[in-house]
Amino acid sequence: xxxxxxxxxxxxxxxxxxxxxxxxxxxxxxxxxxxxxxxxxxxxxxxxxxxxxxxxxxxxxxxxxxxxxxxxxxxxxxxxxxxxxxxxxxxxxxxxxxxxxxxxxxxxxxxxxxxxxxxxxxxxxxxxxxxxxxxxxxxxxxxxxxxxxxxxxxxxxxxxxxxxxxxxxxxxxxxxxxxxxxxxxxxxxxxxxxxxxxxxxxxxxxxxxxxxxxxxxxxxxxxxxxxxxxxxxxxxxxxxxxxxxxxxxxxxxxxxxxxxxxxxxxxxxxxxxxxxxxxxxxxxxxxxxxxxxxxxxxxxxxxxxxxxxxxxxxxxxxxxxxxxxxxxxxxxxxxxxxxxxxxxxxxxxxxxxxxxxxxxxxxxxxxxxxxxxxxxxxxxxxxxxxxxxxxxxxxxxxxxxxxxxxxxxxxxxxxxxxxxxxxxxxxxxxxxxxxxxxxx
Length: 440
Known about the structure:
Structural class: alpha+beta
Shape: elongated
């Protein structure tokens, strides 16, 4: 950080807000200018001296305003301080950083860090100065509640639902393996059975399949109930608890901020549902498939396992890059929303001071930056989908080729080859769900 922080104002009536930002940065209390402007409640005339003192107080800086003569600046001023000047016909706030021999070191929101001679300063000085009397310490001691702690508490709260979901998934996975065996039996052995036995066996598998569908329906209902509970827990309760927040916190929020953040809470519940589906449903089915393939043929298992490891490595590096891109998109989306809100709130000043072109260029820049990040994200996703599809096809071709070679050697039946293909098709669905989860 610079010894004398400098921030240039973006319009003629915001010099007071930028003086506050320079003071906050000097005392290591920095905040975004949009929040400072919100607290200042800027009008077309800017902000009053009383308003400056009240805003500084909200940042734990106790300040007092004094009416003094120019000669007293050399004796009683405590730097840095806000000084009120009159330049031509306009009133202006600046930061007086230092009183030097022969000049004043001034932080001017309109010009930057400048040196003003005694003569020039005395002609512009209105006699009003705001000095900092006390720098308070904001409350910084907070419980270190990490995301790991959040996940731990979340699983503690919903462990019963998770266990029930896992039990249903295990049973469904076992029934899926059994029903896949039905196709192997149909190809290899049904030609040897009489019709009534084929019908009887088929009816038995049909009953098992109906039971599997029932369990799958109950599991989906359980997921819907869990989604409803999570939305109530994260979205509804959080919005209700905002009633108990301090007025300063609510007053410092931009218009539309609460709406944007509440939407993110609904996305959090959806994130957990997709997370559950991958970890407690797809992963269990994946484990059963690998065990089943291992029981069929060891070399087939090795090929599938090797390619799955490669796929997971691709997922890992892809998810890390995707995380960075998603973060950029969220940041640029917030900047774009802030720009739109700023235009809406300062529309009168935009018209009055004829800065339409500047605002137009600013919005254009924010728009282009946001959608360029979206384009990079979609481009990365497209490349990843091609890589994933190529790896899946390689796995299917390699495993089926080996299975056919083993069949040619009469060490495997044609029905078993069909069974291996069915198991691979289940794994394709699993990989696609993992990909969708990473994109989310």
